[in-house]
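Supplementary Note 3. Input sequence used for the single-chain structure prediction.
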Amino acid sequence: MKRRSAAMVALASLTLFGAAKPVLVPDVSARNIEIRYSFAGAQLLLFGAIIYPDGRIPTEATDVIIVVKGPAEPIIVREKQRIAGIWMNAQSSRFRSAPSFYAVASSRPIPELVDERTAAIYELGVNSLQLSPGTSALPENARRFEAGLLELRQRQGLYSQSPRGVEITGGVLYRATIAIPSQVPVGTYTAETFLVDNGRVLAAATRDIEIGKSGFERFVALAARRHSVLYGLFAVLLSLGLGWSAAALFRRRF
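The predicted structure, written as discrete structure tokens, is reproduced below.
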């Protein structure tokens, strides 16, 4: 009996200890997004609840940061310069790993929530991304190319920040909307939710989102990947056929 009582006390202590921190229960409005020929983008709703120990909501509200990342990919950034009156590719820099898509929404601006070190560890914010440059360049050149990559992807709508994009209701429920552009790449995306209080990340949770092509677009993508040689020959023949047809039509009209 004493051993059983001691075991029960230990189990109760362990349970209370494990419940000492709040827990995030996140979800998304769509686990799968299909890209068709008429796909013009989507609005992804991310929502969830914060479960506090003993159900006690703190008097000072905590903050939430939501990060949606696309598959990492290598990328080459080229810098154009005007040489002899012609714009030409002068220098380039290769990044081994950069998110193909990145969007962050937070209940307050990220610099007000965490310091630069914490932001870099969790990659909270566009300027905190770890892009892994693959070429040995001077630090000033590496920073210039990194800034160019971030600016380019922000113009394309593939990188975005919403400093007050997370709405928290009653200190328990939260929600945010992330825009998915039409040119978004396919693959497995991750939606990460962070609970932040006094500059510290108290809890984190992740959900996966699949973005893929369907219909004729899926058929073309699979054909290009599985039968690359035949796909290339078909593309060349199609281009030649369209060019010949355009030339024949031009001769008939003129």
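Confidence is low (pLDDT under 50) at residues 1-19. The chain has six helices and twelve strands.
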